[in-house]
Design brief:
This protein is an alpha/beta fold. The chain contains six helices and 14 strands. The chain has two domains: 101 residues, Beta Barrel (Elongation Factor Tu (Ef-tu), domain 3), CATH 2.40.30.10; 128 residues, Nucleotide-binding domain of ferredoxin-NADP reductase (FNR) module (Rossmann fold, 3-Layer(aba) Sandwich). β10, α4 and β11 form a beta-alpha-beta unit. The longest helix is centred in the C-terminal third of the chain and has 13 residues. The model has no long low-confidence stretch (mean pLDDT 93).
Length: 250
């Protein structure tokens, strides 16, 4: 994979524990990325210990496959985490090394009638990257459900981007699923409960539907099993789990 130098450009709070960090990309070769792919950021501690963390690229891509000179990632702070310690102390203009892009969690070339893009937490970032491609497929008749699980409304990352697309297409549905605290003014599609309880309301067409699952491993596993039980073929259930490594023992 292409070695990259990332120069920090800015950091924006998405909520109390999650930030959007933007970087300028310096690469010896053109940095071409497919929406849904991720980077590996490389970290070195003071004692020389080296490791990496993977982050999906959160930019809204100009098209499905794009040449990028800037990237954004969503980072959830993990108490005691190596990446949290490093990234939270970075200043604008500082650099770190990365490699990529990696991953196949991308919209397949084959068109489907209905897409279910299901996420928790920062697992929604690949879907944000796909928004332009999603819009192209909406224009050819496909229907999309972005089903976003969170404890409360503060966990609905990048919500405005999805609501904006929903306002333009009646066959694009943004569905927040709030498991602990509902909103004072619920959205038209708000669901009280986990994403799985929302999905039980749907019947799935094994020939025309496809599902993408991204985020918390427990959600991914539970939803995968539910979709199988409801007749979805395994090859049409795409999965990507976000796992926070345990803090390094010193």
């Amino acid at each position: 994979m292409t070695p990259l130098t990332l120069t920090m450009q800015g950091m924006e709070n998405l909520n109390d524990s999650t930030v959007n960090i933007s970087f300028k990309v310096d690469s010896e070769q053109p940095f071409v990325v497919i929406a849904g792919q991720f980077l590996r950021l490389h970290f070195t501690q003071d004692d020389g210990f080296e490791t990496f963390r993977s982050y999906s690229i959160a930019n809204i891509f100009p098209e499905e496959k794009s040449l990028l000179d800037e990237v954004a990632i969503a980072v959830s702070w993990v108490p005691g985490g190596l990446a949290t310690e490093y990234l939270s102390n970075m200043q604008v203009g500082e650099q770190l090394e990365a490699t990529g892009p990696y991953g196949r969690f991308c919209l397949l070339p084959d068109r489907h009638e209905r897409y279910f893009l299901i996420a928790t937490g920062t697992g929604v970032t690949p879907y944000r990257a796909m928004l332009k491609e999603i819009e192209l497929r909406l224009q050819t008749g496909s229907e999309f459900y972005v089903v976003m699980g969170a404890q409360d409304e503060t966990g609905l990352l990048y919500e405005a981007d999805f609501v904006a697309l929903e306002s333009q297409y009646d066959h694009f549905h943004y569905v927040p699923c709030l498991s602990r605290k509902t909103r004072i003014q619920p959205g038209v599609n708000d669901h009280n409960g986990y994403v799985q309880s929302y999905l039980t309301q749907h019947d799935f067409d094994a020939e025309n539907d496809i599902a993408y699952l991204c985020g918390n491993p427990n959600m991914v596993d539970a939803t995968f099993n539910l979709l199988k039980e409801k007749g979805m073929p395994v090859p049409l259930i795409k999965r990507e789990k976000y796992i926070s490594p345990a803090p390094r023992k010193k």
